[in-house]
Amino acid sequence: MQTQVAIIGAGPSGLLLGQLLHKAGIETLILERQTPEYVLGRIRAGVLEQGMVDLLREAGVNERMDREGLVHDGFEIAFDGRKERIDLKGLTGGKTVMIYGQTEVTRDLMEARKACGAPSVYEAHNVQLHELKGEKPYVTFEKNGETVRVDCDYVAGCDGYHGISRQSIPADVIKVFERVYPFGWLGILADTPPVNEELIYANHDRGFALCSMRSKTRTRYYVQVSSDEKVEDWSDDRFWEELKCRLPAETADQLITGPSIEKSIAPLRSFVVEPMQYGHLFLVGDAAHIVPPTGAKGLNLAASDVSTLYRILVKVYRKGRTELLQKYSEVCLRRVWKAERFSWWMTSMLHRFPDTDDFGRRIQQTELDYFVGSEAGRTTIAENYVGLPYEPIE
Hints:
Layout: E1 5-8, H1 12-23, E2 28-32, H2 36-40, E3 47-48, H3 50-58, H4 63-68, E4 70-72, E5 74-79, E6 82-87, H5 88-91, E7 97-99, H6 102-116, E8 120-122, E9 125-130, E10 138-143, E11 146-151, E12 154-157, H7 164-167, E13 175-190, E14 200-202, E15 209-213, E16 219-226, H8 236-246, H9 249-254, E17 260-274, E18 277-278, E19 281-283, E20 289-290, H10 298-319, H11 328-350, H12 358-373, H13 375-386
Parallel strand pairs: 1-2, 1-12, 2-8, 5-14, 12-19
Antiparallel strand pairs: 3-7, 4-7, 5-6, 9-10, 10-11, 13-16, 13-17, 14-15, 15-16, 17-20, 18-19
Helix pairs in contact: 1-6, 1-10, 10-11, 12-13
């Protein structure tokens, strides 16, 4: 087999890159080790930055998103028994975020790829990357008991933290930056109406809580738990009671509870590798970086990587601008580290750390009070939350 760009991973980043490149007339082949049903079964993010919304529109996969997604002009931060609203639209010159689940984004992209006839191979096992520093890279995989070779120009590693792409780079070539947080998020999905029209991020003595949603009838709620907690120890009743404890009284009184349809615990970590490229291989999304979900940046950072790689490859194939390939990592990492900083800051300000003493708690509360009480502070939060601009490729 032969293609121009081999894409490893059929999650939203791989599919979005494939869709954009296909529209630009560049051949792609997507290899995914799981089934389509497994990929769609992952419960993930639901807050899309303005930049990602615009990119999905550019890819031509926005029809259902624009029809069913919820545009949010702001969100609220709850602490010290009060709620303060961050006016995203007013503070950023009209930018907003879109509430639209990652599962739905993935489904839209899958259907678009199927409709355009671009090839995807699911249940591709033992994927291996070869000659990444050579003139002619290629990929091999196993399917139905046979080994298949794919010759290509470039490889996009969109296969996540546990994928083969990053593991294909020699350990002495990349530097790893990591911070593991001493807690996780216990989250549930429920078919109940949201407690608030906009998201609520809550700082409380008992720990962090988040009131989010997937639609006007489906909610996603989280509470901070210790890193050694087990899902099976949390009944629905226990979860709802704990959530109510961490919300302002008037919000807790309005909370409508119901049976959970999904419940899981997600550990929190910050993770970055440098560089994000190795020869003809380019790491995209979780293969190169992970952020704690507090700032809603994971999927959105993957989208900005996609945008950067897509725009570079278009100029490579149309104008022969191969020198731009060496700028991929540098351009991506500038935005990655700014998003890492914001996610770390949101996590630090909103969570209860095990070793925080009374002084640290007062500093945390004062920091929140200062930021929400200052227009400059609210603007800083807002412009980071809606997403910093994508860097142009010149």
